[in-house]
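Notes from hallway chat w/ T.B., transcribed later so I don't forget. T.B. wanted the structure written out for a chain they're using in a teaching module, and asked if we could keep both sequence and structure tokens in one place. Agreed to drop them here.
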Amino acid sequence: MDSAPGSFAQPDSFPAPFPFVLVLLRRMADHQPGLVEDALRELGFGRAVMREANRRWQAMQRSPRRRSAVARYRSVLGPPESTATRRIGDLTCEALSWSVPLWPDLRFEVLTAPNGAVWNEWLVRAPGAPGPRLRTAADLLPWSCTVDEVARAFAPARPMEGSAPTRWRLAFDAPEADNGELRHYVAEFTWGLLQRMEDVRPASPTA
């Protein structure tokens, strides 16, 4: 894991651009405060710095002189690690990705339309990095997998409206580890990374 410079330790010495990973963590803290606390300790940040990073990011988004979404990401993340052209149906988009601390096997990906508008912004598996083996509900641990990995492993999955911006929800059936019984789950993702899931009901009537 990358270590954060010591100068980031206090809000009054907070640099610009700020570490974007703190913005990711701030939103994840709503569902996984314990994991976020552990991550902040490993990175050498305090909660006040995380809140300040999120405040600055929100201010950038709401500024009347705000730049385009891609320009904002470049300002805090630097040049993308990779860019690629991708086809989604009949449309062509550009995928920009950056590495981020905490998750060396993931990349932060931004998909942009031909006019520069951002279609999506989330964490995805890095090219060539092995994904988790998702076979049962017990394999779905917080921060272990991305929304597209869960959708593929337990197809057909049904996308649902998220509870807030940068959040996704996914409904699917997954077998129990002990008896193989299919149950229906709704999982919630923040920035594309699994945060929690709820056992809603059995996928089929029991005898």
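Follow-up for T.B.: Residues 47-62 form the longest helix (16 residues). Might be a good example for the class.
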